[in-house]
Amino acid sequence: MKRSRLQLIVGIPIAGLFLGPILWVLWGSVRYGDGSFTFNNFSRLFEYGEGLTTYVINTLVVVLITVTGSLVVSLFAGYAFNRIKFKGSKILFIGILSILMVPHASLLIPLFIWLNKLHLGNSLIGLSFVMIMYQLPFSVFMMRNSFESVPKEIDEAAMIDGCGRLSIIFKVLLPAVRPGMITVGLFAFLAAWNEFITALILLNDGTKFTVPLMLVNLVRGDFGSIDFGALQAGIVISAAPCVALFFVLQKYFVGGFSAGAVKG
Amino acid sequence: MVVANPEALSVKHSMRRSRPNRGFRSTGMGWLFAAPAVVILLFFFIVPLGYSVVMSTKNWPLLGTDRPTNFPDNYIQLSDNELFMNSLLFTVKYTAIISIILLTLSLGLALLVQESKQGTSGILRTVYFLPVVTGLSTAALLFLGFLNPTVGPMTRILSFFGMEPDWLGTPNLALTSTVMMMTWRFAGFYMVIMLSGLQAIPQDIYESAAVDGANRINTFRYITAPLMKSTFSLCLILILTGGMVAFEQFYILTSGGPDNSTVTIVMTIFREAFSQFEMGSAAAMSVVLLIALVMMNVLQLRLVRKDESGETR
C-alpha cells in the first residue's frame, strides 16, 4: 500500500482522535448547558476565588523571573563553558547536567523546608528560583552550543578594536546567539507557565496561587459539584499562550526538542 | 616546566592565536562568568539534595523541632510499608504499559509522516504534536471533563454501542484512562524524536535496498530498526524515567483512586510528608527513588555507548 493511502486510512482518523478533545474543550468553553453561545464561562472565572486576574498576574510574575533569570544565567555560563578554559569547568558542567537525573519529587520535600529558612517559602520568587534550577541544564547546554557555532575570530577582532569582555558579549555575540536565547526563553516560559507540582508544594497561600493551581482547585470543588463550563474556559486560557507560541516559534520548538533529546 | 609568570603565558597564548577554536585560559574569569549558575546549582539543588539525605536519617516530624537520628530505621521500615510497596508495584506496571504503547505508537506515527514537511504529512505532524504544547496538568484536566459521564462525549458515544464505561470508576478503567491521556499528550513528542532519528539514516541505503528488491518489511527489519536503536533507547529512557516519577496525571485524574488502586511512588512520598507529617521517612523514600533512577540512567547509557562503539560506520 502506498504511504499516501495509508495516511488517508490510518493517519487522518488518528488525527481526529488527537483533535477531538481540543475541539470539545473549545466548543464547551463558549456554550451554555442548552447549547447557546456564551462568554459566561469565562466571566465566571473572574469571580472564582481571588479572581482570574490575580492568578494570571501571579503566574506572569513567575514566568518573568524564570525567563529573565534563565537567560542571564545561561548567557554567562554558556559563554564561560565555550569561550573560557577554566579549572573545574568539566565537573561544574556535569554537576549542572546531573539536575536532569534527579526527580523533582526528591528535591521538593527538602526545598519546602530549606526555602523557609531562606525566607523564600510560600513565595513566587522562591518558586521562580526553583524553576530556573529545573531549566538550568537545558538552558546552559543550549547556550554553550550556541556560542560554539559563533567563530572565535569575531571575539578577537572586537578585542583588537578595544572592546571589553562584557561589551563583546552584549554587542557582538548576543545578536549571533539570538536563536539560542529565544529557545531558552521559550522553554523557560512554557515550564513556568505550566508548572503544577512545585507550585502545589511550595505555595500554600490562596492569594499566591498560579493558573494551574486555580484550575485544579476548580475541580476539587467545595461542594462536590464541578463547574465544567468554567473549567473548559480555564483550560482554553491556560493553553492559548502555549499554542500561540507554538505557531509563532515552531522552528525553535523542534530545535529545542532535538537538543533536549541529545542531552537526555 | 611550570610557568609562573603570567606574561609568559600570554605570550604563549598569542603565539597560538592563529589556531582557531581555542578559548582563552583564565580560571578566575571562568568561575566569575559561571557564578550565577553556580549559585543556582548550589542553593537550589546541591543543598536540598544534601538536606534530603540528612532528613532521611532522622525522625523528622513536619512540626516540632525534636529530630533525633534514627538511621537506618526510615529505610528498613520501607519494606514493611504496604502503601509504599503497593505504589512501587503499581508504578512499575504503569511504566511498563505506557512504554510499550508510546514507543510503538510514536514510531508508527513517525513512519507515517516521515516523507515531507509539506502537504498531508505536514498537517498530520502538526496535529499529532499539538497536545505536546499544553501543560501536563492542563491536559489531565481536559481529560477529566472529556471522560466525565455527564458532560464529556466519550460515554455518550460509547453508549451507542451499548457500553457505558465509568472511566474513572474502576481500577482498570482509571489506569486505562490515564494511559489514554498520557498517550494523547506525549505521542507527538516522541514522534518528533523518532523523526529526527529516521532522518539521520542515509537515503542511499534505502535506495540500494530497493535495487536489491527488498520489500517494505525487510527494509524496516534490516535497515531502519537496527539504525534506530539509539533513538529508540533514548525514547525508552525518557519514558521510563517519566513513568517512575508519575504524579500529576494520577493526582488530577484519579486522585489515586478508586480504593487507592492508582497511587504512584511520588504520590506516596507526598502523602507521607504532608498527610502523615513524616518528613524523615518521606525523604528516605525519595532517596531510594533517586538511587533507582540514577542506576537506571547509568545502566542505559552504558548499554547505548557499548552499542555505538560496536557499530561500524
UniProtKB/TrEMBL annotation, chain A:
Transmembrane intervals: 7-27, 55-79, 91-114, 120-142, 181-203, 223-249
InterPro entries in the record: MetI-like, MetI-like_sf
One GO CC annotation: plasma membrane
Keyword terms of this UniProt record: Cell membrane, Membrane, Transmembrane, Transmembrane helix, Transport
Localisation: Cell membrane
Membrane topology: Multi-pass membrane protein
Domain ABC transmembrane type-1 residue range list: 56-249
Pfam family, one: BPD_transp_1
Protein name per UniProt: Unannotated protein
A biological process term (GO) from this entry: transmembrane transport
Signal peptide residues on this chain, from the entry's feature table: none
KW Transcription regulation (keyword) present: no
From TrEMBL, chain B:
Cited InterPro entries: ABC_transporter_permease, MetI-like, MetI-like_sf
Keywords: Cell membrane, Membrane, Transmembrane, Transmembrane helix, Transport
SUPFAM superfamilies xref list: MetI-like
Recorded topology in the membrane: Multi-pass membrane protein
BP GO annotations: transmembrane transport
GO cellular component, one term: plasma membrane
CDD domains xref list: TM_PBP2
Compartment(s): Cell membrane
Membrane-crossing segments per the record: 29-51, 94-114, 126-147, 167-187, 231-252, 279-299
Boundaries of every ABC transmembrane type-1 domain copy: 88-300
Chief place where the protein resides: membrane
Gene3D superfamilies reported in the protein's UniProt record: MetI-like
Protein name, as recorded: Unannotated protein
Annotated organism of origin: freshwater metagenome
